[in-house]
Amino acid sequence: MKAYRICERKNEQLHTLFHPINGSRVMPIGIWMEAEVKPVRDASKTKGKEYISGFHCMETLQEMRDLKRMFKKPRDLVIVECEVEGVRRKKHSRHNVLLVDKMKLIRVVEKLEMSHVK
C-alpha cells in the first residue's frame, strides 16, 4: 500500500522527526524498515492513551500538507512517498494517522512549506 510521511532532511539524508530507529534517526530510501511494535503511550507515560506503536503515516498527500501548522520551529521538512505493510489506524488521533509495521521510503515528493514559521 502507498502512504506518505513527513521526514526532516539534513545534508540530503532523511531523518525521523522524533524517535530513532535502531539508535539512529537516519532513514534510508529504498530499504524496508521494521518498526518496534510494542505497547506505548502518547505524552504521559501513565495517563496518555495506550496503543501499539508503529511508523506514523497518512494515506494522502493532502493530509500530510495539512499537518504543516503543527510544526513551530523552522526545519527542512519534506513529504515522502512510502510503501507500507501491516497497517492499522491510530484510533485516538485527531488526524487520519496510520500506524505501520514495515515501511520503505520511495521518494521525496515535495518540501513541506511552512510559511507560518518564523
Supply database-style keywords.
single chain; 7-stranded antiparallel sheet; mainly beta; two-stranded antiparallel ribbon; globular; 118 residues
List the helices and strands and how they pair.
Elements: E1 2-10, E2 13-15, E3 26-27, E4 32-34, E5 39-41, E6 50-52, E7 55-57, H1 61-65, E8 77-89, E9 98-111
Antiparallel strand pairs: 1-2, 1-8, 2-3, 4-9, 5-6, 7-9, 8-9
What does this structure look like?
The chain has one helix at residues 61-65, and strands spanning 2-10, 13-15, 26-27, 32-34, 39-41, 50-52, 55-57, 77-89, 98-111. It has one domain. A hairpin with an 8-residue loop joins strand 8 (77-89) and strand 9. Strands 1, 2, 3, 4, 7, 8 and 9 form a 7-stranded antiparallel β-sheet that branches. It has a two-stranded antiparallel ribbon with strand order 5-6. The chain is built from 1 helix and 9 strands, in the order E-E-E-E-E-E-E-H-E-E.
Percent in helix: under 10%
Element pattern in H and E = EEEEEEEHEE
Assign the structural class, choosing from mainly alpha, mainly beta, alpha/beta, alpha+beta, or little secondary structure.
Answer: mainly beta
Q: Which residue ranges are poorly predicted, with pLDDT under 50 across at least 5 consecutive positions? A: none
Q: Can you tell me the overall shape?
A: globular
In total, the number of strands is: 9
| Count of spatially separate domains | 1
Distance between the ends: 36 Å
